[in-house]
Design brief:
The chain has three domains: about 120 residues, Nucleotidyltransferase, domain 5, CATH 3.30.420.40; about 70 residues; about 120 residues, no CATH class. The chain is built from 13 helices and seven strands. The strands form two sheets. Strands 3-2-1-4-5 form a five-stranded mixed sheet. A two-stranded antiparallel ribbon has the order 6-7. The C terminus is likely disordered. One of its GO terms (biological process) is DNA transposition. It comes from Acinetobacter qingfengensis. It holds the Pfam family Transposase_20.
Length: about 325
């Protein structure tokens, strides 16, 4: 087996290839992060007589800069795995690789792919990809709308000219119109896709999961494969990390926070509602408080519980059943 690690940046990709296992010969090369560079990378495999069926490519999920490369390599028949940057760095430290350069990172990724048994990457469906882009665009427009509303509020306190105030109001109207248009596109997309519509209905059957949080959960579970609910919670960054050693070290637990801050923020607001209106979450939250847990720790547990419930309804294809708690108690 041959292992290729690719460190992706905005303009280039640093590659480290181990031929015939990690202990084999190592070759490095740098290509541009565009289609020309991608074709040169494929030609490099050909010159080295590396078969796509005998190659595992490991990359880090680096914002958006890795996406075009992933789709290109997948279409070319290559096998890819995406690593968590935090875990890849911890792997490097465990091997006493302290240098943090693009070249060193590509070597770490090749070795990490060989030892970590990462899941094989699969591209999103066209509808999920479109949904992801629409959600990102909506978030951007909504952020702009909040800023313009803040500017309009401030303008009433600093004698801003009426012409400028009208410009701000026109901008607000335009942004509100854009939001409505995006929401309509999202609704149309969901209605046209039977699987997405069914899964969103399942998610919204959970008390405290509204449409916005439901869409984020829909995107999460359709974009990633999780074998357990705990894996999903860990991906989002809702797994508590303990710091304990012997009898002298007793550090407080804290969340890993290695996942999406957007999802965690949405789940936080959902958890605030859930501790009052979701039977499963409320029982757990009250029990934790009774046992002496801090309110914030109990609320984080509520967020984690919501992820587990979302995973459960989607896996079993069954709407949330409030009586399940009493039936199994």
């Amino acid at each position: 087996m041959n292992y290729l690690g690719i460190d992706v940046s905005k303009t280039k990709i640093d590659c480290c290839l181990f031929i015939n296992e990690i202990s084999g010969k190592k070759k490095t090369k740098v290509f541009s992060n565009n289609e020309i560079g991608f074709n040169n990378l494929i030609n490099w495999f050909t010159l080295l007589k590396i078969s796509h069926n005998d190659l595992l490519i490991t990359l880090e999920a680096t914002g958006i800069y890795h996406e075009n490369l992933c789709y290109f390599l997948h279409d070319a028949g290559c096998t890819l795995a995406l690593s968590n940057p935090f875990r890849a760095r911890r792997f490097a430290q465990s091997m006493s690789i302290l240098n943090k350069t693009d070249k060193a990172d590509s070597e770490v990724l090749a070795k990490y792919g060989a030892f970590a048994h990462l899941k094989i990457w699969k591209p999103d469906s066209e509808n999920i990809k479109f949904l992801k882009h629409l959600i990102a665009r909506r978030d951007a427009v909504y952020s702009d709308l909040l800023r313009e509303n803040n500017r309009l509020e401030k303008s009433t306190f600093n004698h801003t000219s009426i012409q400028v105030i009208n410009m701000i109001k026109n901008s607000i109207d335009s942004l509100q119109s854009s939001l409505l248009s995006i929401d309509e596109m999202i609704s149309d997309l969901i209605e046209q896709d039977r699987d997405l519509k069914s899964d969103l209905d399942l998610l919204q059957s959970i008390p405290a999961i509204g449409k916005r949080t439901g869409l984020l959960m829909l995107n999460l579970f359709h974009s990633h494969q999780f074998d357990t609910a705990s894996q999903a919670a860990a991906y989002v960054g809702l797994v508590p990390l303990q710091r304990q050693s012997g009898t002298s070290v007793r550090g407080a637990s804290r969340l890993s926070k290695t996942g999406s801050t957007k999802i965690r923020s949405s789940l936080y607001m959902a958890a605030v509602v859930a501790i009052r209106h979701n039977p499963h979450v409320k029982v757990m939250y009250d029990r934790l408080l009774k046992n002496g847990k801090a309110k914030m720790a109990a609320l984080c547990a509520a967020m984690r519980k919501l992820i587990h419930i979302c995973y459960g309804v989607l896996k079993n294809k069954t709407p949330y059943h409030a009586d399940f708690l009493q039936e199994n108690s």
